[in-house]
Amino acid sequence: MKPILKKTLLSSLLLAFTLPMPAMGADQDLQQKLDALSKEVEALKQQTKKTDEKSIGRWLTIGGDYRFRIDSLRGEVPSYYQFMGPAAMPVLMPEYKPKNDALMTNRFGLNLKAKATKDVTVTTRLLMYKTSGNQTADATNAGFFADRSQILDGTIGHVPSDNTLRVDQVFATWSNIADQPIWFSVGRRPSTAGSPTHVRQNSERPGNGGVPGLLVDYAFDGMTLGYAPDIDGLSGAYAKLCYGRGFEAGYSSQNNLRDTDMMGIQIVPIDTDPLRLDFQWNRGFNIFDNPNNVGNELGDIDWYGLGALSTLKSVGPGSLTLFASTGMSITHPNGNHALLAGAGSPDSGAGLLINGADVKDNTGYSAYVGLRYDLPTGTKLGAEYNYGSKYWMPFDPAADDMWTSKLGTRGNVYEAYIIQELKLQPISSYLSKVFFRLGYQYYDFEYTGSNNWVGAPVKIADLTASPMNAQMFAPLKSAQNIYATFEVKF
Asked: d(Cα 451, Cα 407) in Å, to the nearest integer?
């Protein structure tokens, strides 16, 4: 009921009770006026209800984000042997220092969430990510890393390319199945920017649709079946079974590939601000060597992950967010050669197949830790560190890093950043915010082949020890990136 109507009705009632009895008897139409007023109020209430039911805001939520980013990149390539083909001798290349003083990009995302029926929603994210002054991925495809060498189905929109607005996510979710805390979701999955990578992105937690960022950062098409029981002492607990199609091989007569699929189980025993724990197992089946050309499938990979995230309130004048994740990858080669440059070339493996001959499982490990301290002024100070061993191999090619996915590095990566949010009143959503971010990354590579399952890793210090250590990509010994962003979330 509108406030003015409430005041009118209340004033009329007070006037009626303060009139003398003879006046009440003389004014026979007072009750009729009160009845008419009550009917008018009820009619207005019904009209307001009908208007609310037809309102687009009742079933559709719109949001999104915009980001301008500038990166200053410096690298160091040591002397190494360059592979020149199966029939040619490798060539010794001198060391050099690649750089890009000012790489500018624009990214725009539009989020839509529609309530279709009771318990069924459709969630969509459209994404555009382009290099300023270019309509290709050439600026970031500099020939150093496999995850930046081409645009894949799961990286499009996450690696700078052109100004096309593409469907990054679209999935339908059916909740409360059989009046139980069970949900089923199918479509292009929210399998990028998972926890805890959202901390440095200054984004909200991905929720129960997300994946551990250390293991997976790739846009899969697939489905999820989840269960979120109400357990005393385990607030927010859930478990889910996930499936994704990473590559569709098409008709078998056209190439030597098979479909690449991913299966996974995630268990989150608690998900609160003070503490979030997650356990993850994934298996990738029929890992490809090069899906954009006729290639081969090289075997399977298992991944295991464990993560913890905590936000502590009132730590001094601000709040402190801490996280730690660890992962393990185990490759299972099938003996097939990669076909990019022929058997016996440096790419004849995948980290799955050692030097094209020694078929055995290889295990890699990784650790990822970080913190962020948030001050009441809107200033946020963060630092992160991650390490990957010789055979570490996640599925992270869509990660938001310019050189290469830092979480797939075989070596050490250090990062520090500062975020400054502007104290502006949100309008479009209570989550709306505007901020600047300034950061620095330093990569210290110990082995070649970061984010590449094609080819045996070689220790950086041994690159010139023998022509047998020849490389397909120019290896980096170290790399630096100073970046700055201006971001709007609405």
From this structure: 9
| 193 neighbors 213 (Cβ within 8 angstroms) | yes
Q: Cβ distance 374 to 380 under 8 Å?
A: yes
366, 392 contact by CB (below 8 A): yes
- Report residue 33: phi and psi, to 5°: -65, -40
21 SS3 class: helix
Is pLDDT larger for residue 419 or for residue 351? Answer: 419
Give residue-wise pLDDT tens across range 156-202: 999 999 999 999 999 999 999 999 999 999 999 999 999 999 999 99
Handedness of CA 165, 399, 346, 73 (dihedral sign): positive
Length of the chain as a residue count: 490
Decide which of 175 and 48 is more confident.
Answer: 175
Closest listed residue to residue 405, CA positions, set 222, 161, 215, 157: 215
Is pLDDT of 97 > 80? yes
8-state DSSP, 135 = S
Kind plus residue range of the DSSP H or E element containing 128 = strand 120-131
Closest-CA residue to 191 (of 208, 159, 216, 155): 216
